[in-house]
Structure formats: C-alpha cells, structure tokens
C-alpha cells in the first residue's frame, strides 16, 4: 500500500520511505508483530494521512516542494527496505522492502510519473538507509522501462549510521542493544537483503552488510544524494549503548559522544550535498519544525533548493557552485546542541523542556573545567553556550 497526493500541474515527484528500525530473527520479529503491528502489516493503516514537513502541501511549512506529487510508502517490511524474500516453510514472515518500492514505481508510471522531470526518493531513519540502498535501482528500473528523461535523486535523512565501537559492548539480544554491524549481518541473511551491485563488488562475499553504512555505499552511487544527518543522532547513540537520562553522564561517555560527532563529521567531508547540525535528535524532514533548523545561517529547505538549482545548472553547463547558495553544511562546533537552532530538548522522564546549559549540566558537563581547557572565564563560556556561538 501507499498514499498518494497528486498535483497535476507538477512534474516533480517525491516518494517517501517511512522508517522504524527493523527486526532480524524470529524472536524479535514476533515481538515487533505483537507490539508494533503497523510496522509489520498494512491491516490497520488509516485510509488517509496528513503530510507534514517536506510532505506538506502548505507553502509556509514546505517552501520548495509543496506543489509536488507526494507519495508516502509506509514501512511494513522491517528489513531496511532491502528484502526480497517471500513467506516460506522456513520463514513465516515475508521481507519485501526492495520489491515494494519497485511495485510502487511500476504502478505510479500509469498515474503520471511517466512524464516526471524529477523523482526525489526520500526517507527517514531506516527509510533514509533505504534511500541509499534503492536510489540507483529505481533509476535503473525507470531507464529499463524507457523513461531515461526522469532525473532520479535521493534524500537520506537520519539513515547515515556508523559501524563504530559501542560505548559498552552488549550481546546481540534485541534490535536496540545489538551492535549495528551484527544486527545487519544477521538481518541481511534473514531477509535475503539486496544491496546495489556496485557496492557489493567492493566487498568480499558475506561482507555485503557494509553497504548498509552510508559512508561505504555513498562513493559507489550514481544518482545524486543529499545527506541529512544530526551529528549526535539519538538512534546511533542508542545502538552504541549511550543512555542520556537518569544519572549524569560520566566523563568517558561525554568524550565518547564528542568523538562520535567528530567521526560522523569526518565521514561527511566528501559528501557533496549535506546538512549536519550539531544536535541530539533523530529524523527531521517530515517534522513541521524542519524549516527552523539552520547550519551556518542556512535552513534545510533552502539548502535543498540550492541543491536542486545546482543540479539543474550543472546539467546545463557544469558551472561553479552558485554564490550564496550553499549545499555542504556541517556544523563545526564540538558538542550536542552547540547550534542555537537545535530542536528543544526534553527530559525523557519528566517531559520538561531544557535549555542548553541545563542539558549540558545534566550531561555532567563541567563548565569550570571546560572553560579552563579553552583558556577563558566560565561566565564567558556560559554566555557562548547559551547564544550557541
């Protein structure tokens, strides 16, 4: 199933892949089926849905894409949009994420996609990783069907994970505590997961799991992809076993978090089009506050608009990037929420909003010590933190 909002005057199409983790063995798929049925079956899906963020048809909420044809593809395959296995004697679940996308494309061609100029395949979280895994395949599918004129692009939100060392190693019991590499390694076998050919060729047989990690698959992609990633992604911290509520954060944890931001920043340095705010959060493009977040004075919708223009211009004459229209935006400040436009932080237990200073204190951030390291007065550091410089 999918949801469609047609916009007859537009030749732009936006296909959105929903996220929601995954399951990688019989036990955790059973649990998921019992507790999160809507991510396993379309039976209880509502007849209509309201589009928000980049799926909104209100120009105030969605300045550059409000008029596009919108397609929302809910996530019921639990396989990071990679699976190609039907239900069998051995496996009572079907994992068909990759095939669902192909079928939706086939059907949309008859509903106007055939005359599209641009198809933007977007997704958040597992859907963002799904974009990286499927964008080239969608382009190939349309070419094979005879629609070479459609420019296929990707927008991956919060799906650029690191296969880093966990803060605390745990056994791989459930989706949340299992190290990302191990979960995907098991999942890919269980789902019969597909990865793009060009990425697969970079790795030995049995090592295809590498292609689920953005920085490894990105260099092999042919389609242009815009990467949106919080430098301190909550889902990444969760699988790394960093938990930020309850007790103050120990120093080791605090250093781990800062290092995570550095590592992530490094993996994005050769990504042509990227937007990476130094915030602690997860997913952004379908949030209604997505226009508020800025990196170096540029909002995400503006950066996407600049990217659109740069692709349009480079098709014409390969000119230098447009002045005053940046597309490579990565925060350089070193800790969570050092960017003043970050979304509000709430204490997960009390639901109270926290400002940056309260949050950092809660994290065990030592203002005296930090000020000393930076060679400045504590009061000056506090002022900088609260203004986000």
How would you characterize the overall build of this protein?
- The chain has 389 residues and is of the alpha/beta class.
- It folds into two domains: 341 residues, 3-Layer(aba) Sandwich (Rossmann fold); 43 residues, no CATH class.
- Helix content is 33%, strand content 13%.
- It contains twelve helices and 14 strands.
- It is globular.
Order of helices and strands: EEHEHEHEHHHEEHHEEEEHEEEHHH
How many structural units, i.e. domains?
Answer: 2
**Gyration radius, in Å:** 21 Å
**Category from helices, strands and their pairing:** alpha/beta
CATH architecture name of the largest domain: 3-Layer(aba) Sandwich
Low-confidence stretches: none
Q: Provide the CATH topology of the largest domain.
A: Rossmann fold
Number of continuous helical runs: 12
How helical, in percent, are the residues?
25-40%
Query: What is the global morphology?
Result: globular
Major sheet characteristics: 8 strands, mixed
GO molecular function: palmitoleyl hydrolase activity
Family: Belongs to the pectinacetylesterase family. Notum subfamily.
Organism: Oriolus oriolus (Eurasian golden oriole)
Pfam family, one: PAE
Short description:
By secondary structure, the chain is of the alpha/beta class. Helices cover 33% and strands 13% of the residues.
Summary keywords:
NOTUM carboxylesterase, single chain, Rossmann fold, PAE/NOTUM, 2 domains, palmitoleyl hydrolase activity, alpha/beta
């Amino acid at each position: 199933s999918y949801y469609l909002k047609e916009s007859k005057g537009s030749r732009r199409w936006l296909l959105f892949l929903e996220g929601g983790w995954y399951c990688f063995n019989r036990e955790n798929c059973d649990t998921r089926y019992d507790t999160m049925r809507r991510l396993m079956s379309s039976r209880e899906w509502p007849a209509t849905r309201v589009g928000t963020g980049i799926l909104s048809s209100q120009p105030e909420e969605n300045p550059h894409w409000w008029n596009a044809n919108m397609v929302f593809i809910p996530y019921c395959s639990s396989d990071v949009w990679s699976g190609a296995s039907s239900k069998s004697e051995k496996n009572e679940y079907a994992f068909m994420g990759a095939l669902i996308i192909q079928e939706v494309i086939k059907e949309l061609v008859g509903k106007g996609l055939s005359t599209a100029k641009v198809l933007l395949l977007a997704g958040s979280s597992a859907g963002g990783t799904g974009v990286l895994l499927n964008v080239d395949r969608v382009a190939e599918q349309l070419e094979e069907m005879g629609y070479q004129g459609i420019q296929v692009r990707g927008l991956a939100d919060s799906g650029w994970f690191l296969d880093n060392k966990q803060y605390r190693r745990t056994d791989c019991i459930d989706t949340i505590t299992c190290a990302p590499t191990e979960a995907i390694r098991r999942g890919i076998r269980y789902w019969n997961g597909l990865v793009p050919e060009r990425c697969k060729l970079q790795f030995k047989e049995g090592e295809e799991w590498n292609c689920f990690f953005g920085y490894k698959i990105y260099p092999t992609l042919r389609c242009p992809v815009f990467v949106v990633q919080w430098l301190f992604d909550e889902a990444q911290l969760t699988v790394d076993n960093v938990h930020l509520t309850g007790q103050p954060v120990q120093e080791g944890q605090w250093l781990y978090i800062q290092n995570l931001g550095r590592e992530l920043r490094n993996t994005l340095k050769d990504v042509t089009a990227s937007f990476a705010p130094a915030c602690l959060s997860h997913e952004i493009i379908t949030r209604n506050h997505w226009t508020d977040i800025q990196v170096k004075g540029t909002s995400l919708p503006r950066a996407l608009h600049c990217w659109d223009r740069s692709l349009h211009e480079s098709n014409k004459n390969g000119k230098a990037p447009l002045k005053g229209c940046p597309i490579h935006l990565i925060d350089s400040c070193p800790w969570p929420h050092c960017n003043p436009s970050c979304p509000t932080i709430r204490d997960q237990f009390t639901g109270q909003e926290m400002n940056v200073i309260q949050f950092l204190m809660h994290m065990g951030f030592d203002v005296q010590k930090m000020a000393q390291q930076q060679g400045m007065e504590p009061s000056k550091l506090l002022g900088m933190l609260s203004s986000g410089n």
